[in-house]
Amino acid sequence: MSDIALTTATAAPARRSRLSQSRLRSAWLFLTPMIVVLAVVAGWPLLRTIWFGFTDANLSDLSATQFIGLENYYSVYDGETYGLIVDPSWWNAVWNTIWFSAVSVSIETALGLIVALVLNANFRGRALVRAAVLIPWAIPTIVSAKMWGWMLHDQFGVLNDILMGIGLLSQPVAWTADPQTAMWAVVMVDVWKTTPFMALLILAGLQMLPADCYEAARVDGIHPVKVFFKVTLPLIRPAIMVAVIFRALDALRIFDLIYVLTSNSSDTMSMSVYARQQLVDFQEVGYGSAASTLLFLVIAALTIATITLGKVRLGGEMK
Amino acid sequence: MMRRSPLKTLGLYALVAAIVVFSVFPFYYAILSSFRSGSELFTVTYWPSSFDPSNYISVFAEQPFARNILNSVAVASVVVGLSLFLGVTAAYALARVSFRGRGVLLFTILSVSMFPQVAVLSGMFELIRLLGIYNSLPGLVLSNLILTLPFTVWVLTTFMRELPKELEEAAVVDGASSWVIVRHVFLPLMWPALVTTGLLAFIAAWNEFLFALTFTLSNDMRTVPVAIALITGASQHELPWGNIMAASVIVTVPLVVLVLIFQRKIVSGLTAGAVKG
Amino acid sequence: MLRTSILAATALAVPLFAPLGAGHAGAQAAEISISCGAVGIELELCKSGADAWAEKTGNTVKIVSTPNSTTERLALYQQLLASGADDIDVFQIDVIWPGILSNHFIDLAAYSDGAEKAHFAPIVENNRVGGQLVAMPWYTDAGLLYYRKDLLEKHGKPVPTTWQEMTETARIIQAAERAEGKDTLWGFVFQGKAYEGLTCDALEWVDSFGGGTIVDADGEITINNPKAIEAFELAGSWVGDITPGGVLNYAEEEARGVFQSGNAVFMRNWPYAWGLGNSADSPVKGKIGVTALPKGGPDGKNTGTLGGWQLSVSKYSANPEIAADLVMYLTSEAEQKRRAIEGTYNPTIASLYEDADVLAAAPFFGDLYETFTNAVARPSRVTGTNYNRVSNAFWNASHDVLSGKTDAATAMADLERELKRIKRRGW
Fold first, then answer.
1. CA closest to B89 among chain A residues
2. Between 20 and 30 A from A69 (CA), which of B201, C5, C282, C391?
3. List of chains touching A (3+ CB pairs within 8 A)
């Protein structure tokens, strides 16, 4: 290899690396404000929670807090085991939450996709329908949960009245009281409430698709259903995945809906309801923080699984 | 534009009708309830029987509800503005520039959304008192960012990553700075994503309850969900359903208007309205 | 340096000059924040009472409204108190909170001048934690039995005095009315949701049978006894028979909804349901009666669970004496009388139940005097900060029996074990 060849070969990369260096610099410049804000807002509260998980803190007197290591998670007194990982009601809450999240997020994704496709089509009054669809998401949860509680009431609820009116039920069902239906009632209300969130994000994905691939497909006379599965779906997959991840994060932390609809009933208790019960109702800041930390770990594990299985790109090359 | 067959049109409108009924019926029921009172709460009705506006009047008479709405608008707007600004800049770096630890950073941002809100509450309470913004709107803005920022950053990163590389390359060759690229190349194409995340973040901040309840004390600093939760009957256990429903209807209307204004912007960017099924 | 000495001089000078002239009012007048009801008559009465005190003493009062939901209110209080915030001086607290929050309140005995002696003894006792009077009784509440006068008359049944009799009457009337085509009618509704309200209801059943109060005054766990099991066996038999299955998710308002729309013969509820049930648009207006809750069999007793609210002063308050003065004013006989007349709030002072003005405004106060004085307190004082755990375990066990998940005997045995676990090394 000659010297001349070497210099010409290195000139371009040097220029490029200067360029990418400046890109990198501005990238960090762009990132810094967000990271600083997030660190200020979230850093202390989160670290404090994790720390309290290793203490016996009690809300009645936080100054007497002592470090107790892993005792909140597992400990033995007089041959009896205590701690989160041997607490059947904690695992019951974990199982309830995972079941709830899997079922509700699946239904919401399917429905959200349908709604998004409909909203993406051109028809009269589309603006109004878009606004109408968003209404469930717009009503404060504390109100909509109470409202549904009333609509699901076994004696004077409108749902039983409708279902009996059209002959689907012969006698009123106590939706939120019966262990068989309570979780489904929660799922139904959650689907009603958060499908708009899904639909809107997927709609944004659909709207950002380039038009040319449709044109090509249409010219080729490919059946629309095939176009959807072969072209549209793969293209909007990133949008769907991000919507699914954030829906799942919310679903795994579900609190107020369950709390208002069915209170502390063990049939529907979620991880967040459990953590709140410990933190607030029982004043066990230490134990509740440990539960929150464990909740975080469960969610993190599930998220990593979703990201891996859903092939979400975190650091990969851009297009 | 392709013409649809009548059958397809009918099917589409049937689907639209089904979606609208599913979404709106509970809200319709809320409107009905907001015009009723007392014992009527315990009966089922499908059609308006009377138009008694007294619930609406008492919502404004019994508390500074107009002030509460203003607070909510202010808090949610600032939260959305900040989140979008921080989100867009961060998303550019995360989506368009390769650097080490990008995946880890994205995951760390996401992990902020993995703690239950109630666990964050005490730490946030201390932070807000430390900063001296207890019982004030800046305190609410700050605490809401923990809810909206990870979401905004992630969604915008995802969408920005999907934009074609060629767009940027031309600008880079012209020697445009990163800020110019974001401002003039990406932003115009990002409208659907920006409006969508903005709307979703706005509603999230608008509906946030736990922080708003804990970090404010006086009625004229409170936001709408807290104000609604504070509506009570004459006695301890009584539920003033009519008033609560009236208040809920009032606070939902601004959001509907907001969606109507911004929904046009959901259609744009690359497609410019060309893609129609 | 200069600055410090000026400061020191001022600090010395202020107390010297304070007693003179206008400085007097300035040094004494303080702004007291009080948390009482949110809106409605409760807030009105609190506001007018506090304003009267402010007028009299020259201080100012700021009212902080808090959520009506007791769980949310407790959470907010805990957050404020745990951080030592002085934003609220006077707290309105539920009858079960003295044990939970006692650490954060001052001893009011130093300011009461013995005034608490005029109040109902069980409530004062309930508010005394570790020898300190952490709260003054403000108004009281107790569980009552509501019944449909017209239906009892129609079927020739007397007002039941025992739970067994009530069960029987409810079953007969329900069957007869349904045979006549009124198929939405149920015999009895109560609060069966898994929450504090169920603890109140279930405690009434257990105590009326003579089964004690879950944990006795000495902190011994007493719940696993034959009387309690008997009470739960009866209660478990109601659901699906005389009580709709939905009761397992009823709070106060859901139960009132069924009763007030004419779909129940009996209801257990608090006194508030009386006024609403008799309001102009109520379908059962004028058809309802109210009495003490039935006894658990002939040897049992009438028991209503003690409810109601107290006033406490935060120990983080900047002006505890002035705040305590406001508390004493608001809980005084004159103020309680005004509240009883204007808002039918049950006084905690015995003599007011014989007061002609009060009885004219709320006639049923006289008949139910016994119920209010003998109301049974939940074991919140003895179990202290663990009360919510105890109550949670108790309502879960009750809920399991009502839903038929477990039988009464097993549930009580399990509950006893669970309570022992909670107690571990003492309450």
1. A30
2. C391
3. B, C
Q: Strands C306-313 and C90-94, how do they pair?
A: antiparallel
| Closest Cβ–Cβ partner in A142, A242, A295 for B158 | A242
Domain ranges of chain A: 3-51, 90-309
Element (H, E) at C141: strand C136-142
Q: CATH classification of C30-134+307-373, choosing from 3.40.190.10, 1.10.3380.30, 3.90.1070.20, 2.40.30.40?
A: 3.40.190.10
Report d(CA C408, CA C245) in Å as an integer: 18
Classify domain C144-305+381-423 by CATH number: 3.40.190.10
What SS3 string covers chain B?
Answer: CCCCCHHHHHHHHHHHHHHHHHHHHHHHHHHHHHCCCHHHHHCCCCCCCCCCCHHHHHHHHHCCHHHHHHHHHHHHHHHHHHHHHHHHHHHHHHHHCCCCCHHHHHHHHHHHHHCCHHHHHHHHHHHHHHCCCCCCHHHHHHHHHHHHHHHHHHHHHHHHHHCCHHHHHHHHHCCCCHHHHHHHHHHHHCHHHHHHHHHHHHHHHHHCCHHHHHCCCCHHHCCHHHHHHCCCCCCCCCCCHHHHHHHHHHHHHHHHHHHHHHHHHHCCCCCCCCCCC
Determine which of A160, A258, A265 to mutate to test the interface with C (most C C-beta atoms within 10 Å). Answer: A265
Min distance C253 CA to chain B CA atoms (Å): 6
Check CB contact of C246 with chain B, cutoff 8 Å: no
Cβ contact B255–A314 (<8 Å)? no
pLDDT at A315 > cutoff 60? no
Residue among A153, A178, A281 minimizing CB distance to C388: A281
Q: Is the pLDDT of residue B264 over 80?
A: no
Interchain CB distance below 8 Å, B234 and C72? no
Q: Is the dihedral of CA C382, C384, C388, C389 positive or negative?
A: negative
- Mean pLDDT computed over every residue of chain B: 84
Nearest CA-CA distance, residue C394 and chain A, Å: 12
The domain made up of A90-309 has a fold known as MetI-like fold (1.10.3720)
Nearest to C194 among A156, A265, A280 (CB): A265
Q: What is this model's ipTM?
A: 0.85
Residue of C34, C63, C65 to mutate, interface with B, max B Cβ within 10 Å? C65
**CB atoms C244 and A155 under 8 Å:** yes
Of A37, A207, A295, the CB nearest to B86: A37
Residues of chain B with pLDDT > 70, as a percent, come to 92
CB contact under 8 A, C403 and A176: no
pLDDT in tens, C145-178: 999 999 999 999 999 999 999 999 999 999 999 9
Do domains C30-134+307-373 and C144-305+381-423 share one topology? The answer is yes
Whether chain C has a CB inside 8 Å of the CB on B117: the answer is: no
* Whether the predicted model's global pTM rises above the 0.80 cut: yes
Please name the residue of chain B whose CA is at the shortest distance from the CA of residue C282.
B39
**CB neighbour list of residue A78: distance below 8 Å, 6 or more residues apart:** none
Write the pLDDT tens digit of every residue in B196-226.
899 989 999 998 988 998 898 888 899 998 8
